[in-house]
Design goal:
Layout (H helix, E strand, L loop, with lengths): L2 E13 L6 E11 L2 E13 L2 E4 L8 E5 L5 E10 L8 H19 L22 E2 L2 E2 L34 E11 H10 L4 E9 H4 L11 E10 L1
Antiparallel strand pairs: 1-4, 1-5, 1-11, 2-3, 2-6, 6-9, 7-8, 10-11
Length: about 230
């Protein structure tokens, strides 16, 4: 059973939630068959538009996560602007990530049990797109994308599961929730030239309906997260 490392890599801001700088706190947690790894949380400081590194601002990866092909895996990350009231703080954000993961297990995991007639994805299926809510493994020859894609299930309707109330400029700027079988991520890692799975997510606060930011155009964040051998 290989051990994996899950981490937030970089984020690009094209519009802040605040009028100028966003004061960010970020966290990531991993759950394998409901066993918790992390969450790792870090208050990172003030940011304006541009591309930034999570590790440079001391957010640690979640390492040593054992994943087998038949395991059920949940990954959750959250990023907030908390400059006005410093909420959530690090302890609160750890708790919120845990609550989100447990709700995803309850809502999504029953759909992730493979029927006896369905095989686990293998090397031939590494180009399949994984739709995580409900889980679906389309035929790799049916016009799917050239790289495995995990569908974020914590945007849209499921965002309301963990939505918090904020005043002023504080609020959510990015949130990711992913559910998949271990075989999917292991195959994606093995298929990558650098043996690292890369996922890029775009979050527009105005489009997602995440409260009313101080910036009337709405915040816009592009977040890159990765998985590789630990």
């Amino acid at each position: 059973m290989p051990n994996l490392q899950f981490y937030l890599d970089t984020f690009k801001i094209t519009d802040t939630r605040s009028h100028h700088d966003d004061t960010l706190i970020a966290g990531i947690g991993v759950y394998v068959n409901e066993k918790e790894f992390g969450p790792n949380v870090q208050s990172m400081g003030d940011f304006n538009n541009g591309t930034h590194s999570f590790s440079k601002h001391k957010l640690q990866p979640v390492t040593g996560v054992p994943v087998s092909p038949t395991d059920s895996v949940v990954v959750v990350y959250q990023i907030y602007n908390n400059g006005d009231h410093h909420s959530p703080n690090e302890n609160l954000l750890r708790g919120e990530i845990g609550i989100a993961a447990q709700k995803l297990f309850s809502a999504v995991m029953p759909a992730m049990k493979f029927p006896d007639t369905e095989s686990h994805p293998t090397g031939a299926d590494t180009n399949s797109k994984l739709s995580a809510y409900p889980v679906d493994f389309p035929n790799a020859d049916a016009g799917e994308t050239s790289q495995p894609v995990l569908e974020n299930v914590l945007t849209g309707g499921l965002y309301s599961l963990i939505k918090l109330a904020f005043k002023d400029c504080d609020g959510q700027v990015a949130i990711g929730g992913y559910t998949f079988k271990g075989a999917t991520i292991l195959n994606a890692i093995n298929a990558a030239a650098d043996k690292t799975f890369h996922q890029s997510d775009t979050f527009n606060a105005k489009k997602e309906g995440w409260d009313r930011p101080c910036n009337s155009s709405g915040s816009n964040y592009i977040v890159n997260w990765c998985v590789k051998g630990s």
